[in-house]
Amino acid sequence: MFKDIIVGVTPSGVDACAVESAVGFAKKFESNLYLVHVAGMEQGWGSIETLEASGETARLEARIREMYASLLADLPSVAVQVVAGIPHNELLRLARKKDTDLVVMGPHTKEYEEKRAQMWGMAGSTLERVSQKARCPVMIVHRAVECKDPAFSNILVATDFSDQSECAVSYGGQMVRQYKARLTLMNVSETSTDSPQGRADIEARLQAEYGDRLQGIDDFVYAGRFGRPAMEILNMATQIGADLIIMAHHSKADDPEEAFLGSTVVQVSVNAPCPTMSVNRHFDLRCGLMYDQTGQVVDVAATV
């Protein structure tokens, strides 16, 4: 499912959880794994062009290899790359070049635990730019993930019935089929008051909108909720013991910075009890070919 995986790293080791998750995927799928650190920010903008010539990139690469040596020892195909430049530009460039199937990212700051809300809401951050523009799913890992087989047994997919969310549902279906996991598909309404009939109406719409895309999945439930989307998604993830949350990264706001600052994806990711995976509009064309649990193709049109 993942043949080429990029994980963003720093020499500080704060990304260890993200690296461990990426290594787990690489082992399961015999993937090509790329650990990428973009140097330049800490050294100062004026010295970016001199980093390689000075030998600093080579020293950083050696430090990262030593830091993760035990994790990388058994991988058949792994590369550590240190490049100079602007972090989100270089990560996106490499992802396009390798036609990457997954980008894994961690917090990328030593002060993460104390300042995570500020860091995640920072307009122009690496996490923001990569999540908005990557042509593949971006998995956000901010805490230790239990290593188990299968890696995911209980997947939560949240939708707001947008075009981007339709793709997130389709991709969630792929993940559920691959891992033979349980699926919870939910929508949160902010426009009505909670009631049994209201929840039933949402669940009926979920079935009508996405039933065809869930062919071949035996274990799934629809869930309708009312309230603040981020809060309800987090409550549901905790309630069902989800080990992965999948959402669409988008917003109705016209200003990209305002959209990111107020996005439900950000609010969920910084507080989720498990990794969060986001897809965006650049990924839509990849989700047309779906498979059921027997490996047969399910005839569902792609979102465009």
Automatic annotation (TrEMBL):
<comment type="similarity">
    <text>Belongs to the universal stress protein A family.</text>
</comment>
<dbReference type="InterPro" id="IPR014729">
    <property type="entry name" value="Rossmann-like_a/b/a_fold"/>
</dbReference>
<dbReference type="InterPro" id="IPR006015">
    <property type="entry name" value="Universal_stress_UspA"/>
</dbReference>
<feature type="domain" description="UspA">
    <location>
        <begin position="152"/>
        <end position="279"/>
    </location>
</feature>
<dbReference type="Pfam" id="PF00582">
    <property type="entry name" value="Usp"/>
</dbReference>
<feature type="domain" description="UspA">
    <location>
        <begin position="1"/>
        <end position="142"/>
    </location>
</feature>
<dbReference type="InterPro" id="IPR006016">
    <property type="entry name" value="UspA"/>
</dbReference>
<protein>
    <submittedName>
        <fullName>Nucleotide-binding universal stress UspA family protein</fullName>
    </submittedName>
</protein>
